[in-house]
Amino acid sequence: MFESRQNPETERFLKSLGFPVVNVHSSHNHHDFTRPSRRILVIGPMGSGKTEFSSRVWRDSRVALRKSEEVAELTTTAGSDRRRVFFVRSSLDAGRFPDYPDDALAFRGGYERLGSNIAAIRNSFELEKLIEDHIEIGTWIIDEASFYDERVAYVVNRYSDIYGMNFIFPTLILNFRRDIFNPTARFLLNVSTDVFTLTAYCEHEDCIADSFYTYRYYRVDGRECPALYFDPLIVIGGDSIKDSPVEPNYCTRCDEHHYLPGEDYTFLVLKPLGEQASRGEIEPLKQELFSIKNEIERSRLYQVLEEAYMDVEPRLPICMNSLKVPCIAEKAMIYLFAEENLLSEVQVKRLAAELDLDVEYISRTLEDNRRPINFEQLDLFS
Fold this sequence. Notes:
Number of strands: 16
Distance between the termini: 59 Å
Mean pLDDT: 89
Oligomer: single chain
Largest sheet: 7 strands, mixed
CATH topology of the largest domain: Rossmann fold
């Protein structure tokens, strides 16, 4: 809900109806297509209604397009009419709603069919071409814009300035670690002109507190297993609950119920091991990855988590469930390579071969995180 400051006219109107002096709240106003060059961030956790916000803009546009030519003059700049709306989703997220039509702007609880005014793209260059091919479109809704390269912020800034186009970004700004999602999210914050913040109820069954954070977890043998801090930054998941131990689930949680085990381990142990490996001392990292994969209770990871969650009061055994998820060694190596740039491609290939890691999982995850490696040639002797 958004509180609006009362102006004298509103106050007089309410008094004429017999209301006392009250605070007036507005959950949503109709979209203003007359204002040019807006770059609107719509931020909030999973399930807070970011995409549904977009659907309301689409429905408003259907009404606005039926207005007269006089209205068209108010909503058009350099040939781009802001009443014309186009929805752009990331190719990474294209399979999120498999049960809906291809042209559906889908959200929890429904969808809008957009016909030809919808497309899936991979990067800012494809967005640029899409805009050039539809220069008459004045409002662009770019879903999950943080998934793209940071150049996207400069592309939208340029077209916003020249054509008065409006851009709406329903996107996660914080990742499952509660950090700024990535450099793209930071740039979007820098270029935005408006921000709408949405919240949701915490989805823990025993809680109804306001929630701002996206929580990632896996289900193994019916148990909730929180994602470790060094879980890959981008792992695509949908809105249906999955019982697969390799496919994540997402929901929104409050401070108390947002579990994030392994942050201490990442910076006290894992990253220093990666720094050693970057200097050519790879054996300590290799030993830790071996322990994680084959005898996890002997690993430093197990020891750090046990001290943090089992040797204290109150205990949090749910955080130990994070060790039940497969491919933990693979995820640790991916983190050091894709995010910290501490391992070389040759080192990744060598560790994967010598420790018999899941190359298919590594390859697929690195592709999603835009750091692909070709494992067909292992280059073990490079």
